[in-house]
Write a structure and sequence with these properties.
Length: about 350
């Protein structure tokens, strides 16, 4: 039981993510110190850093999806809190009272300006007990070096996360709306609703370090995984169509359009010169277009034959995709699963309805 105290508590944390955070912190803190030193005329050999920036780096690189680690949270939280600390130190001369008051007011200020950032408490405290250098800087301290450090760190974080292909600043990806109408996406019409999440959060009475929209996205993925687990014996190979109509990349748009209409299908896989899947076209791509399908094909949704069939539900209900192409490791087409195929399979898995007396 004692060993459980040392188990990481961050959900989804992997060794790769933690190593990436370490590398990001090394680069971010080092370059922030160098750039700030050059900006302030101290030279690259002098690291012009304030301690709260180290805590900001932990959030920025270790938990970039946290609301507390977003750009405004880091820049606004540190700067506003430091300004609060310097202001309190100017008017309250007892360091004990000033310290507590500065942190308390910093929390309030960050809350009202929507930039709550835990290192901001340290920035406020530094403004009070930072010593002669902070006192001499006065109201310049919140901006140089605190704001300067924060801006440089965020800029470096943006570059680092972009290169490592992370979503930062963290932006919630809404589910695709249905066909440009006001209807909600199919996947959100059943199950829990946003107001259920609000009611649950109110009932728990706690604050969680996760965005409300991310909670909804996580819960929907949990629902999907639970359904896949309960139906894990039904594989894509069990329900896929095997006689797949496809066209080569060199086929004309007119030829592809004719195949779609003649076979009454909505998705046509496109093959490259080696007979491998290159993309897909539908009537949407072929409308009022001339030339070959190579110039208009879209990316095809794919899956392996041993993929649980029900895990294809998000793709086939996104409002854009009408079929998933089943391929082998070399992208040779093995079959095709349409929305109708998945619906028919789901219907067979449901228990029969009881007759009403």
């Amino acid at each position: 039981m004692a060993l459980r105290l040392f188990v990481p508590i961050l959900a989804g944390a992997t060794l790769r993510e933690r190593l990436s955070a370490c590398i990001g912190a090394v680069i971010g803190i080092a370059l922030t110190g160098v750039i700030s030193g050059l900006t302030m005329g101290k030279g690259p050999q002098v690291a012009m850093l304030v301690a709260p920036v180290g805590a900001s780096a932990v959030l920025l690189f270790a938990v970039p999806s946290s609301p507390l680690a977003q750009p405004w949270s880091i820049i606004g939280g540190n700067t506003i809190s430091a300004l609060v600390g310097v202001t309190v130190a100017r008017f309250v001369h007892d360091p004990v009272i000033a310290s507590g008051l500065a942190v308390a007011l910093a929390i309030a200020a960050m809350s009202f300006t929507r930039c709550l950032h835990p290192p901001g408490g340290a920035a406020a405290l530094t403004g009070v007990i930072g010593g002669p250098a902070v006192a001499a800087a006065g109201f310049l301290f919140p901006f140089v070096p605190v704001a300067l450090n924060s801006i440089v760190l965020v800029a470096l974080g943006l570059i680092f996360h972009r290169l490592s292909r992370r979503n930062y600043p963290h932006v919630h990806q809404p589910a695709a709306a249905g066909h440009g109408t006001a209807d909600p996406p199919p996947t959100t019409r059943v199950g829990f609703r946003p107001e259920d999440i609000d009611a649950a959060l109110a009932a728990l009475g706690e604050t969680f370090d996760i965005d409300r929209e991310d909670i909804e996205r996580l819960l929907r993925q949990v629902e999907l995984q639970a359904m896949v687990r309960s139906q894990r014996t039904l594989l894509s190979s069990d329900i896929m169509s095997r006689d797949v109509i496809a066209v080569p990349q060199t086929a004309s748009v007119d030829e592809a359009r004719k195949l779609l209409l003649d076979h009454n299908i909505r998705t046509l896989p496109v093959l490259d010169a080696n007979g491998r899947l290159a993309g897909a076209v539908g009537l949407r791509e072929l409308t009022q277009t001339t030339g070959t399908v190579n110039g208009v094909m879209a990316k095809a949704g794919t899956a392996a034959p041993d993929t649980p069939a029900m895990s294809l539900l998000p793709v086939l209900t996104d409002g854009r995709s009408h079929a998933v192409v089943i391929v082998d490791a070399e992208r040779h087409i093995l079959g095709l699963i349409t929305q109708t195929d998945l619906l028919a399979a789901a219907a067979r898995l449901q228990p029969p309805l009881k007759a009403v007396a």
